[in-house]
Amino acid sequence: MKFLHTADWHIGRKLNGFSLLEEQEAVFLEVMAIAKKEQVDAIVIAGDLYDRSIPSVEAVSLFNTMMVEMNLKSGYPVLAISGNHDSATRLETGSLWLKTQDFYLQTQLSQAFEPIEMLDTQFYLLPYFEPFHGRQYFQDDSLRDIQGSMKLVIEKMKESFNPKKNQVLVSHFFAAGSTKSESETTLEVGGLDSIPIEMLLDFDYVALGHLHYKNAITKNEKVQYSGALLKYSLSEEKQEKGVRIIELSEKKLTNTFIPIKPLRDVKKISGSFKELTEPDFYDSINREDYLAITLTDSAVIINAIHELRQIYPHLISLERVQSEQRRRESTKKETNFIQLKPDILLKTYYKEVTDKELTKRQSEWLEEAIIENRTEK
């Protein structure tokens, strides 16, 4: 079995106000070219197809065009799941008849236990889910974190393992020890938020989504993120983007990363206003890239951002050296505060104000409110 592993398309995403639909369409064409060149048997998309639970009309139109090209015209079986940015309810519309075209789009925990069998491989499609979904499905109120639910999920999946076939898990979560970047939404509600890699080793390959960096996991080749197709924040400036080509033959794994070149890159540049407005400088770079500029001038420059945008149309930020240094110092001071989980932060505040702990029911309300707030975003 040979398949292409991708994830975190985030169709409809914007970068500092700039729509990325054009870039997303261009990078999709590269994905299709890779799939054809590598002669893959299927394409796996591990969640976050859209950037918002209620995507724009333009985003939906682009996704539909992509799937028509990938599945109907090119004939690739598609195995996809919903991520934390997707609306599971909206995304599952039409999923029953999509299966007749070998387009498997799963959005509910209950669907994950019946494997999709292709050639010599069983695919288990596990969409993003919260701890309360695990409690509901397994009818077990003791499941307070994602680890407890995942243990039962994997045990149930293993009941249908065919020893003569490969087993692939497709899912969307934070694996313990992974490296995050600024553009990912933190998944931390109600206790432990990560899954130990050791829990996943019964699968021959685990195709993950959620983290945008292809090297977020370095410990085990069997458990990997594909990374996003585009750079969605400045923190990803140095990251290589692309897809993975996975080949499984008699339980042997070949994992190859193939880079993709974006229509416009995300970069940082710095210099004085005079240097940045010199033709010798700006003709030496791609002015169409998404650029974050740091000015080294100490003097006030009137209308600097307006003037620079005449040369660099996709300018996403403008800072001075001094302000950037202050921002870094401020970030260090706020690190401890930012790293607190939302539920712990609110519980601590409640305790300080009332001198009481939240009741069990109040804790459940809090967890539900945090989940609802994230979904609305």
From TrEMBL:
InterPro entries tied to this protein: Calcineurin-like_PHP, DNA_Repair-Maintenance_Comp, Metallo-depent_PP-like, Mre11_N, SbcD, SbcD_C
Keywords: DNA recombination, DNA replication, Endonuclease, Exonuclease, Hydrolase, Nuclease
Biological process annotations from GO: DNA recombination; DNA replication
Domain Nuclease SbcCD subunit D C-terminal, residue spans: 263-353
Keyword Aminoacyl-tRNA synthetase set for record: no
GO molecular function: 3'-5' exonuclease activity; endonuclease activity
Domain Calcineurin-like phosphoesterase residue range list: 1-213
Assembly and binders: Heterodimer of SbcC and SbcD.
Similarity field: Belongs to the SbcD family.
Function of the molecule: SbcCD cleaves DNA hairpin structures. These structures can inhibit DNA replication and are intermediates in certain DNA recombination reactions. The complex acts as a 3'->5' double strand exonuclease that can open hairpins. It also has a 5' single-strand endonuclease activity.
Protein name as it appears in the record: Nuclease SbcCD subunit D
Natural source organism: Vagococcus fluvialis bH819
